[in-house]
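Researcher: Let's do a round of design. I'm pasting the structure tokens now; please hold your answer until I've finished.
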């Protein structure tokens, strides 16, 4: 047992997690409600001591993220507590889209099939476990929408209080699909970075609050590794050669890379080379700009894009995204709002998958990477669709609809040339 301020942490509360490690200086900290290094104020992440883990052990687990419990900072009995049981979403063999873009082999990891229809259910489930184990009582977050949905739903399922902070001009569907769960929803005047700053201030002042992407962020972010685990398992326990990932804070991209690396080190897959590509909307593309300019520092920007779920002007993991892209031989690109809309329609038309704007960013970026020769069309490629298009209907509302309106008669049908 170990002790935090007023709560005793039980043995095994964080599974095979043994410590927190600073991503900047490497200093180690004990497991607890900490997120900034005491030595250099750098960001912390969970470090592990793994036992032998086999494919058979994982495959015998439940068809959700808890099949990877030994690889996450969660206890062995995590599945016994009420949670939304996210994960194990489909990996689509995207033959039609591949043919249209001139790719030999393309897969779409479609995370719109999660309980609240985005990948955020994964990270929230991991954060919820940490919140419970740390004895925190309020489940909270600043959010651009998808995280708000996931936090509100997970809190309702777990029977704890939620308080969610969102920008005042968030898409209406995301507001409704957060408020419906009955928690406290707070609209804040300003953009996401303003909301995030307020959340950080509250987290520093209020006891017992778990801001999933602030003071329990080290545990929260580990949930994104399950995307890497599932992709590898669904490919028959191997790594793709290339992967394109949307970038907001950048945490998803860095944790997918971490997941692939861990699988290789544990011998669950052959540690083959892979390239990681990041996708941003031009109206909020600080990481893509830094990559193009050859900079290691990401200069904050004021977001102006329809891809609100990616509209984080000061991305916390931006420098680490640059590191991953450069280390793996990938790239970070951005696309215009017009290209985003075209990307949404292209994926829907070719594969029957209706993506939200973040998915449109990823598809459009894939297309651009091929056109500019940065991505190898002969290499097996995976792209991430992180959310459902029903959340961002306004993006395509004026682009689609009935081709024709006719009277209810066969003659009208013929006259319209619909045979």
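Researcher: That's everything. Go ahead.
Model: Designed sequence:
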């Amino acid at each position: 047992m170990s002790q935090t301020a007023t709560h005793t942490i039980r043995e095994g509360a964080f599974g095979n997690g043994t410590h927190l490690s600073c991503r900047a200086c490497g200093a180690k900290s004990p497991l607890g409600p900490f997120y900034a290094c005491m030595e250099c104020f750098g960001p912390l992440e969970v470090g592990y001591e793994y036992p032998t883990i086999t494919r058979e052990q994982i495959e015998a687990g439940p068809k959700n993220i808890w099949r990877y419990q030994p690889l996450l900072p969660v206890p062995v009995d995590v599945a016994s507590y009420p949670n939304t049981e996210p994960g194990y979403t489909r990996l689509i063999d995207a033959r039609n889209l591949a043919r249209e873009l001139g790719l030999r082999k393309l897969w779409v990891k479609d995370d719109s099939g999660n309980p609240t229809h985005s990948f955020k259910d994964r990270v929230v489930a991991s954060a919820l476990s940490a919140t419970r184990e740390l004895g925190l009582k309020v489940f909270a977050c600043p959010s651009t929408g998808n995280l708000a949905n996931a936090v509100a739903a997970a809190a309702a399922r777990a029977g704890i209080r939620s308080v969610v902070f969102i920008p005042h001009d968030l898409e209406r569907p995301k507001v409704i699909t957060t408020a419906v769960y009955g928690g406290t929803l707070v609209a804040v005047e300003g953009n996401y970075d303003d909301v995030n700053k307020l959340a950080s201030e509250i987290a520093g002042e209020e006891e017992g609050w778990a801001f999933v992407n602030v003071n329990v962020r080290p545990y929260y972010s580990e949930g994104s590794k399950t995307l890497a685990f599932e992709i590898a398992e669904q490919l028959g326990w191997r790594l793709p050669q290339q992967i394109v990932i949307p970038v907001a804070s950048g945490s998803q991209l860095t944790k997918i890379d971490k997941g692939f690396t861990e699988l290789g080190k544990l011998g669950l897959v052959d540690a083959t080379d892979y390239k990681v590509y990041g996708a941003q909307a031009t109206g909020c593309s600080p990481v893509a700009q830094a990559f193009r300019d050859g900079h290691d520092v990401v200069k904050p920007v004021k977001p102006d894009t329809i891809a609100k779920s990616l509209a984080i002007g000061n991305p916390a993991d931006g420098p680490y995204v640059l590191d991953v892209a450069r280390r793996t031989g990938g790239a970070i690109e951005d696309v215009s709002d017009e290209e985003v809309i075209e990307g949404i329609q292209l994926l829907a038309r070719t594969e029957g998958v209706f993506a939200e704007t973040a998915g449109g960013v990823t598809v459009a970026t894939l297309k651009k990477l091929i056109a500019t020769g940065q991505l190898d069309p002969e290499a097996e490629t995976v792209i991430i669709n992180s959310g459902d298009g029903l959340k961002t209907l306004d993006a395509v509302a004026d682009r689609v609809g009935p081709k024709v309106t006719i009277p209810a008669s066969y003659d009208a049908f013929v006259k319209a040339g619909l045979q």
